[in-house]
Structure formats: structure tokens, C-alpha cells
Specification:
This protein has 109 residues and is mainly alpha-helical. The chain has 7 helices and 2 strands.
Length: 109
């Protein structure tokens, strides 16, 4: 399954273009621009599963670095600062990884 089966290609392109510059990524804005914040809980869970590259049930820091590339191959890698800020915002229990619940909460906050 690809992200374009849940989100429109145009919305993904718009979200990627908005954060092309290093240190310009804002998860909440990205989720709004790509349309994910308006999707059903089932669609959000599908997207989480796609982003969970190793199917561990969590998105770890290493996977977060390549977050934008999961939406559009060739997109930039998140900077360390962006990765840590994203992880901090969505890691509910401070275990260094994002579970599906933390991911969903980061979309709705």
C-alpha cells in the first residue's frame, strides 16, 4: 500500500514543498497540508503502518529521519533538530519511539 492510496498526490506535493528548507518542518502543518489531519482514524492507522518501515508497531528515531521520503521519494531527510522535535512531540511515554496512539494524538493536538 502506498500513501497516495490514502492521500492525494497534489496534497502530498504541497506539504513537501512547504518544508523543503532544512529546519522548516512542522509536523502539525505538514499533516494539515497533506490532508492527513482530516482523515478517519482507520486511514491514519494505515498511514502509520506505511511509515512504520520495520513493522515493529512503533516509529523509531531512525525511521523519522526519512519521514518525508516515505511521502515522496527524493524528498529531503529531516535534520536532527527536526527529528528530535517531532519525536518529543509525539512520544507519549518518552521511550524514544512513537506508537500509533502518540502518532494519532500528534495529528489532533
Amino acid at each position: 500500500m502506498s500513501l497516495s492510496s490514502v492521500l492525494s498526490a497534489d496534497a502530498i506535493d504541497s506539504a513537501i514543498k512547504d518544508c523543503q528548507a532544512p529546519d522548516s518542518f512542522c509536523p502539525k502543518k505538514f499533516f494539515q497540508l497533506c490532508g492527513l489531519s482530516k482523515k478517519s482514524p482507520q486511514d491514519v492507522k494505515k498511514v502509520f503502518g506505511i511509515l512504520d518501515n520495520d513493522a515493529s508497531g512503533f516509529i523509531e528515531e531512525e525511521e523519522l529521519k526519512f519521514f518525508l521520503q516515505r511521502f515522496r521519494p527524493g524528498a529531503r531527510v529531516l535534520t536532527d533538530k527536526e527529528t528530535k522535535a517531532f519525536l518529543s512531540a509525539a512520544d507519549d511515554d518518552s521511550d524514544g519511539k512513537i506508537g500509533a496512539e502518540g502518532y494519532t494524538d500528534s495529528l489532533l493536538d
